[in-house]
Amino acid sequence: MARAATTSDVFNAIAEPQRREILVLLRAGERPVTELAQELGMTQPRASKHLRVLREVGLVRDRKAGKQRLYGLDARGLRPIHEWTGGFERFWNESFDRLDAYVQDLKQARQEGGN
Amino acid sequence: MARAATTSDVFNAIAEPQRREILVLLRAGERPVTELAQELGMTQPRASKHLRVLREVGLVRDRKAGKQRLYGLDARGLRPIHEWTGGFERFWNESFDRLDAYVQDLKQARQEGGN
DNA sequence: TTGACGCATGCCTATATCGGCATATGATGG
DNA sequence: CCATCATATGCCGATATAGGCATGCGTCAA
């Protein structure tokens, strides 16, 4: 097998820089595909494909508006990522010296604990 | 081209579930490869390869300890991701009705603004 | 109905990834 | 120096991705 987890989850969806750009743009409001493509300097099919991925993981929603199709942000899916990375906050706040010490302590405790 | 941005950035590094698991485990302290592999139920080469990716993006560091090589967490690289997702916090906090309204307002303003 | 516009898809290529397996490399102990 | 443990790598295969290009489909206007 290759690439077990595919683009079908949020982590992968935002691993693509252009998709992140799209999300950022959509913070300013709904937009049709063409406009997004233009502002980001990509072709329309390319934008559509990225939007499809974003839609499949639930980060954007679309609604028809006459001839156009407006894409809008649904950022709720980003929350889990924010929280997951937040679980490491204490580690990047510690200075490295202290972090090492902390880590040593843990390892010590782990070994004494038997596992 | 395919997959323009590769595993050489932090977003891609943590897009892999097993790499995230490794990072979580490392919060409890430094560990040798074999132990990580065992606890996560993966083969040693597999663990080594994931660790290599994590090392290349700076999320883990390694140091020799006799015959072993201990891997330790360096979570600083996760901070940008935390902050990037944090930029969407107001969007997932808004109820969707209000969000739509907000978005409409922005769009309105954008159009009136001439762009 | 026809034409024009807006967008989604299909097909194809190049490439990168993950995984498995075997093996190279490194360090330690005798 | 040799055997052994710990880890890194190399090579291969299967698969999925991103992008390009052409084209299909739906909607609106005349």
From TrEMBL, chains A, B:
PROSITE patterns: HTH_ARSR_2 (PS50987). One of its GO terms (molecular function) is DNA-binding transcription factor activity. It holds the Pfam family HTH_5. It comes from the Bacteria. InterPro entries: ArsR-like_HTH, HTH_ArsR_DNA-bd_dom, WH-like_DNA-bd_sf, WH_DNA-bd_sf. NCBIfam families: HTH_metalloreg. This is Metalloregulator ArsR/SmtB family transcription factor.
